Amino acid sequence: MSPSKLFDKYRVQLCYCLVLITFLAASVGEGQASNMEPYNLSDEVIATSGFIGKPQLMGGQTILTGEIQQSVVIVYRVAKGDTILDIAKRYNLSVGSILDANHMKALDAANIQPRQKLIIPAEDTNTSLAWLKEINKEKERQARLAEEARLEALASQYSWNGGGYSQPSYTTYSGYQVIGTDWGSYGGSIPGQCTSYVNKIFNLPNLMGNGNQYLASARAYGMATGSVPRNYSIIQTNESWYGHVGVVVEVSATTITIQDMNYAGEGVITRRTLSVNDPRIVGYVYAPLN
């Protein structure tokens, strides 16, 4: 049989073999490379394509080596008004995964800026809520510092110097410091009394009564009370016939520091420290501040 007739007879089979050889050569030469460049999608591409959802896994498959997978790298550009939680929800990820991918601390997440670029990971690798606890802890710390500053300002606001009101000078006596004076009347209380000072600082109903009635009145109004001191709680003591109230401004393991009025005289604001186990302490009211 002549070569031309032989070719005509097996032409289909020969063409198939040629295609197969070409395919194998391409697969072996390209598909097994270990340093393949990752697929990159810029933030501009994402913005124009309206991509929403997780980054996709792009992969090729070869006959000899099986599947090779590569992750799409997505860079998101922060828009005005974005929060880290908004971005995480958009891509169906946990915030912790985005923080890890960008080597960010939890507190950085609260301060992302417009046009800042964030890497969006392909997989949700960190579902912990530790980032949220850290942010809330910092917020509590900042709020505590702000309230401490506010209380100090309140304590110094009405300092009488004989001819008018001015900033007080701290005068230390045995067991207490004088930090100011105040002759205003707040919440229906008598000027210069301990109750007037407490009513000025806390958002309380009128006519809470004498100092020895604050715990009972607070319970009647649905406010929380207890035996554990907290910063910016009301302390009730039995230091006089009518009882006494003040403001807890600092708590340690063994002591509390309070600010009160009429301990050293009517209208006189003092600062002093008591043991947490002082037998004069009756309890505490956890009331909202003004």
Automatic annotation (TrEMBL):
GO molecular function, one term: hydrolase activity
Residue ranges of domain LysM in the record: 74-120
Domain Peptidase C51, chain residue ranges per copy: 169-286
Swiss-Prot/TrEMBL keywords: Hydrolase, Signal
Keyword Hydrolase: yes
Coiled coil segments of this chain: none
Full protein name: LysM domain-containing protein
Organism annotation: Candidatus Berkelbacteria bacterium RIFCSPLOWO2_01_FULL_50_28
